[in-house]
């Protein structure tokens, strides 16, 4: 299990180190640092790369295909779909209202948000191939879902740390402490959805997309505290599932479960 985190940080922080050291030539070739810069995208994809490397190492190419079939898992109780579809927007708008930024829509005209949706869908959410696709199920073999969620959230938050010192990123304008709390909270909220859906990768990826949604008003840093409260509510309402390993998804492949574990 530690191998996943070692690979993720080595790849992600290694690529970001190149951006620090060679920022000018890299940006001259690939453009400004951000979601359209392929070098930056490579760093963002490091959890997915690490997860797929581990699956390939233990199961081979067929195993990777079986693993990726978990994107086809989408069934879960309707209440969780409400949380997925409406929970993040409500949290963002509430946070913006508390911040006094409720009326600040980031696109003018409004339809400028449409081309921003594709990068938001295809970049950040890909992280969940690693974080909640590989790391959390493996952690749930030893720990309760709550503990696994907290561990993933801590590493997820720390993994973002270089972005706070790298100009051109959203995080460079934020404070790390509230963001770190928010990362842990979001990991906790995603965990029961991942488990109740049978180990879906799609569900956490869609939730991540919602969190990165370009249409929502800026709720930083208040959004992190709002989602922390939401995480506490999720744990209290689902304490049996979160504090017991019964029902926790621990498998990596779908549907063939006959191979040795990662």
Describe the protein's architecture and organization.
This protein is an all-alpha fold and about 260 residues long. The protein has one domain (about 1-240). The protein has helices spanning about 1-20, 25-30, 40-45, 45-70, 80-100, 115-120, 130-140, 145-160, 175-195, 200-210, 220-235, 240. Helix 5 (about 80-100) runs antiparallel to helix 11 (about 220-235) and helix 7 (about 130-140) packs across helix 8 (about 145-160).
Number of domains: 1
Terminal Cα separation, in Å? 8 Å
Mean pLDDT across every amino acid position: 92
Q: Bin the helical content.
A: 55-70%
Largest sheet: none
Record keyword descriptors for this entry.
about 260 residues; mainly alpha; about 65% helix; about 0% strand; disordered C terminus
Topology readout:
Blueprint: H1 2-21, H2 23-30, H3 38-44, H4 46-68, H5 78-99, H6 114-122, H7 131-139, H8 145-159, H9 176-196, H10 202-211, H11 222-237, H12 239-242
Helix pairs in contact: 1-3, 1-4, 4-7, 5-10, 5-11, 7-8, 8-9, 9-11
Write a brief structural summary:
The chain is mainly alpha-helical.
């Amino acid at each position: 299990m530690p191998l996943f985190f070692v690979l993720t940080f080595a790849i992600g922080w290694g690529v970001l180190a190149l951006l620090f050291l060679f920022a000018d030539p890299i940006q001259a070739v690939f453009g400004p640092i951000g979601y359209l810069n392929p070098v930056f995208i490579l760093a963002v994809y490091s959890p997915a790369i690490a997860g797929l490397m581990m699956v390939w190492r233990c199961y081979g190419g067929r195993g990777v295909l079986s693993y990726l079939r978990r994107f086809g898992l989408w069934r879960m109780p309707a209440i969780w779909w409400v949380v997925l579809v409406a929970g993040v927007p409500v949290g963002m708008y509430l946070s913006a209202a508390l911040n006094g930024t409720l009326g600040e829509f980031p696109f003018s005209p409004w339809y400028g948000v449409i081309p921003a949706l594709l990068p938001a869908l295809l970049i950040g959410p890909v992280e969940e191939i690693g974080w909640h696709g590989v790391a959390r199920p493996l952690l749930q073999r030893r720990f309760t879902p709550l503990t696994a969620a907290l561990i993933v959230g801590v590493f997820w938050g720390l993994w973002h740390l270089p972005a706070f010192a790298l100009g051109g990123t959203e995080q460079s304008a934020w404070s790390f402490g509230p963001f770190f709390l928010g990362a842990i909270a979001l990991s906790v909220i995603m965990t029961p959805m991942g488990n109740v859906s049978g180990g879906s990768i799609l569900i956490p990826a869609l939730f991540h997309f919602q969190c990165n949604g370009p249409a929502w008003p800026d709720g930083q840093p208040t959004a992190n505290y709002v989602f922390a409260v939401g995480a506490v509510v999720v744990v209290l309402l689902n304490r049996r599932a979160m504090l017991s390993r019964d029902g926790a998804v621990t498998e990596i492949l779908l549907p063939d479960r006959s191979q040795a574990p990662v």
